[in-house]
Amino acid sequence: MRTARCAPDGAPWYFVAMLTDRSVGIPALSVAALLLATGCGDADVPVPSAPHGGGTGIEGRIEALLAQMTLEEKVDQMHGRAITPTGDLWPTPDNSRLGIPGFQMVDGPRGVRAGKATTFPVGIARGATWDPALEERVGEAIGEETAAKGANVILAPTINILRHPAWGRTQETYGEDTNHLGEMGAAFITGAQKHVLASAKHFAANTIENKRFVVDVQMDERTLREVYLPHFEKAVGDAHVASVMSAYNQVNGHYCSENPHLLRDVLGGWGFDGFVESDWILGTHTTVDAALAGLDIEMPSGLFFGPELVQAVNDGEVPLSVIDEAVRRILRKKLEFGLDAQKSPDPSVVESAEHVALTREVEREAIVLLKNDGAALPLEGALGSIAVVGPLADAINLGDHGSSNSVPSHAVSPLAGIEARARGAEVVHVPGPTLSASDESAIASASAAIVVVGLTAEDEGEFQGEGKPGGDRHSASLELSADDEALIHTASALNPRTIVVLEGGSAIVVRPWVDEVDALVMAWYPGQEGGDALADVLFGEVSPSGKLPLTFPRSALDLPPFVNDQDEVTYDFLHGYRWLDAHTIEAEFPFGFGLGYATFVYANLRLDAAGLPSDGSITATVDVTNTSERAGDEIVELYVGYEGSSVARAPKDLKAFTRVHLEPGQTKPVALEVRAKDLAYWDTDASGWRLEPIAYVAQVGPSSRELPLSATFTLAD
Ligand code: BGC
User: Fold this and answer.
1) Ligand 1 proximity of 209 Cβ (cutoff 6 Å)
2) Is 403 in the pocket of ligand 1 (CB under 6 A)?
3) What is the rounded CA–CA span in Å between residue 212 and residue 581?
4) Burial, 48: exposed, middle or buried (Cβ in 10 Å; 0-12, 13-18, 19+)?
5) Hey, is 640 helix, strand or coil?
6) Predicted local confidence at residue 267, as pLDDT
7) Which of 185, 343, 594, 634 shows the greatest Cβ crowding within 10 Å of its Cβ?
8) Is the pLDDT reported for residue 364 higher than 80?
9) Residue 18: which H helix or E strand, with range?
């Protein structure tokens, strides 16, 4: 028996507040009216164990079911059950007559948002691992916990391109480059879909929080195809994602939930056979336009896709074939994923020792060492005392409090991790920001000062209404707070071995103080074992190996403008490292950059062919040697530049990367495959991809700004 309840126990869902918030620019709706309109209060519905389809094979069963369904039953498949979750899950209706189970959807990208669950480093941190194989294991763990919570759809991954680091939800996505984002997102989906359906979100161009419900993002077709969509195509084509969530915003004048170009031309062109659900509540705007455009499910309720949709079909405004097509997509995924089979989820997988250990493994790979003058790190040998300074030293800082919030039963703060690893050194905690004379002397007399500062859910996150925590970054300068900066200045003046550990979900401008500190570590929102992973890195248990999946600029003025207070914005095809390259601007820390305790040398770049077959790929191989006395991982990056293109191109684009482990002194050949289809540009006149017979320059090295080796190739005859 399943029960639909009108209101969840506990705190009201934050959308209820948003519905009455005039800042969203949409007429306030009465919550009571919504609850009525969505039929909240359904009685318990028994669901037989298998749909009475009768047909053979999944497509046959779908047709047999469709033939038995009334119009009302079909439309019932096309919306959620209520504007508030049931427990923590978002259900769609069951059909007890035909034995069709509903979906049970749940957030989120850094861990299941349902009670206590394993909480991983945020997406941007996982992006810093550049390790799709590890990300597949994260997806699998989150998928397994999703099933254990009784849900069958995980509303993740977030794979919006990071256009500007002031975007409040930067932390949820994997980074600024479409190739890297696509690889990481596809890996998550492959892992998660071993257990449940995944939903790639938010389709498309959702890169502003504060105006997300209304903003019209304008761009030409080439920019859309080359920059804002390829990672979604990978989710569909490579990872076979079961569903896609349409974004709140508009693209070129149409809301994404009723955008025929996005939902029909683009998704249809990719051969997507899953379903599209709208983003929540304010994501659907119409009945007829949305249905005709290809929206399959309105979430989380049937405000537009309830009785109004039945009426629209009866009035001839929406052809029955459109409804049948949507229901086919929904039923297909229900049957493919065996939602009709009885399952007995195992609750013991939630926060299992294995999953918790995985969060630490991920964070060890995610931490990025940005600066290490005079070998300030690792902390080895005899240490008298260590001053652990700053407001985040003793904080559990796991990310924003929007839909991606995830809460573990326990978490390890930086201070706790350092204390557990200090090997007899005295650890002195100095929270700040105001320092007493004794605080100052503790910092001055310590063998090292570790200052832990950064961003929190107050500074950035999903938009939850004007004046609420989160939303786009408060500081347009992308700098730390004045208190944090003052603490760093003071600590570095007092202690000659000052190590700054930054937490946060995006780029931080460090120019005002970075020259004063000896070492700088980006720890992100580090997941529940973050403190232990940090200690693993600080004390040299592991060589740091993460690399930035986004540019850290010297100044926010070095990036394209971030406009989050207008109803319309226009994007061109440059942002991030492509923008800096095109404008010859130095980054503070470039895309793809990260240091380690191990050091590596690159040599002997060679290609496996002189020409690239237009329907195939070419492989570049490089020898990478660990020239240090420590084992370590290196992320090897390959970019391609274009010589003689007939269209404007970015100076170079990431086209392949891989992570390799090397013992001290070891050399390994590292192969990087470049696919021809990834070098084509979108020819707007021909409405298709065009691969030019020009010179392509493969450049290989440890970051987007350090590419010591290159080799040129052309198309094969
Ligand atoms: C977010 C989605 C989320 C949904 C359900 C929306 O506000 O944009 O990412 O999945 O809420 O919680």
Assistant:
1) no
2) yes
3) 29
4) middle
5) strand
6) 98
7) 185
8) yes
9) helix 14-19
**CA–centroid distance for 200 within its chain:** 9
- Please give the angle made by the CA atoms of 105, 68 and 96, to the nearest 5 degrees: 45
Which residues, including other chains, have CB under 8 Å from residue 611's CB and lie 6 or more apart? 618, 713, 714, 715, 716, 717
All residues at 6 or more sequence positions from 43 whose CB lies less than 8 Å from its CB, including other chains: none
Q: Given the CA of residue 206, which atom of ligand 1 is nearest to it?
A: 8
The rounded Å distance from CA 279 to ligand 1 centre is 6
For domain 600-715, the CATH class is mainly beta
Is the shortest distance between the CB of 279 and ligand 1 below 6 Å?
Answer: yes
Q: Which residue has the tokens 């080439």?
A: 222
Average pLDDT, the chain: 93
Centre of ligand 1 to C-alpha 200, Å, is 12
Residue 211 C-alpha to ligand 1 middle, in angstroms? Answer: 15
Question: Running DSSP on this structure, what letter comes out for residue 279?
Answer: P
Assign residue 49 a region (left: φ > 0; alpha: ψ between -120 and 50; beta: otherwise): alpha
Q: Whose CA is nearest to atom 7 of ligand 1?
A: 280
Identify the pLDDT of residue 56: 76
Segments making up each domain of the chain, as ranges: 69-343, 363-589, 600-715
Predicted confidence at residue 451, as pLDDT, reads 98
How far is it, in rounded angstroms, from Cα 470 to Cα 209? Answer: 9
* Confidence band of 16 (pLDDT split at 50, 70, 90): very low
C-alpha–C-alpha distance, residues 229 and 267, integer Å: 10
The pLDDT score that the predictor gives to residue 344 is 86
CA 8 to ligand 1 center in whole angstroms: 17
CATH of 69-343, one of 3.10.50.30, 1.10.760.10, 3.20.20.300, 1.20.1440.230: 3.20.20.300
What confidence category does residue 482 fall into, taking pLDDT thresholds of 50, 70 and 90? very high
> How far is the C-alpha of 690 from the C-alpha of 649, rounded, in Å?
13
pLDDT at 5 over 50: no
The catalytic residue positions are 279
> Exposed, middle or buried, 424 (CB in 10 Å: 0-12/13-18/19+)?
exposed
Q: What is the pLDDT of residues 152-206, one digit of tens each?
A: 999 999 999 999 999 999 999 999 999 999 999 999 999 999 999 999 999 999 9
Atom of ligand 1 nearest to the CA of 113: 12
CB 363 within 8 A of CB 529: yes
CATH number of 363-589: 3.40.50.1700
Mean pLDDT value across residues 556-565: 96
Atom of ligand 1 nearest to the CA of 201: 9
Best mutation site among 403, 463, 468 for ligand 1 pocket (most ligand atoms within 8 Å of CB): 403
Residue 169 near ligand 1, beta carbon < 6 Å = no
Contact partners, residue 382, CB within 8 Å, separation at least 6: none
> Residue 471 has what pLDDT?
96
Shortest-distance Cα residue to atom 4 of ligand 1: 280
Give the residue-averaged pLDDT of 502-508: 98
Lowest mean pLDDT among 11-25, 60-74, 565-579, 639-653: 11-25
CA distance 411 to 430: 20
Does position 31 have pLDDT exceeding 90, yes or no? no
pLDDT for 345 equals: 86
pLDDT tens-digit map of 437-470: 999 999 999 999 999 999 999 999 999 988 899 9
End-to-end CA separation in angstroms for the chain: 64
Structure tokens at 265: 């031309």
Q: Which of 279, 281, 284 is the best mutation target for the ligand 1 pocket, counting ligand atoms within 8 Å of the beta carbon and taking the most?
A: 279
Q: How many residues are listed for the chain in this entry?
A: 717
The Å distance, Cα 248 to ligand 1 centre, comes to: 10
Asked if omega into 93 is within 30° of 0 (cis), the reply is no
Indicate whether 24 pLDDT > 80. Answer: no
Ligand 1 centre and the CA of 107: distance in Å? 7
